[in-house]
Amino acid sequence: MPLIRERRSVSYAVILGIWATTFLYCLLHDQYLVRIAPEHFTVYHEPLWGIADPALLAAAWAFRASIGPGLIMGMAALFVGRAGRGRKVPVGTMLRGYAVGLGITEIAGLAAGAWSWFTGRTLYPEIVYPELTRALITTQSIQLTCYLAGVLVGIGYLVWLNRSR
Asked: Considering the chain, what percentage of its residues have pLDDT values greater than 70?
């Protein structure tokens, strides 16, 4: 007996919808980071696919960075929100809830970045910053906060999905 009795189209809609939302989030996020500190991508990330343009490199990194988290969260959301005998959370509700979670994650990152920008200080131990320029302190504070908030908000999203059943 399968764990998820679901049409493939619905499964794909959830998994690929959450990945696509993750990719769009990463793309927009990295596009403003690259404008604050291009070296965040050109110096402190390995080159990808021979791309030299900083904005395109940031977009390529957004694509690469979205695949694992997006697909894993999509599969987790499908399982938590639609597996078993309980009420199935509608796909649209799942995707909107996920987008809200990404918005919360970004707000946390922007708050951390604003604090670092205006104070000129690191939010985390200096060892996690590639250099201590204002621009890189800001972008790294944003990134680290988004990683941490993303994990916490992701767990909260899955709990919300479970309770929505």
From this structure: 98
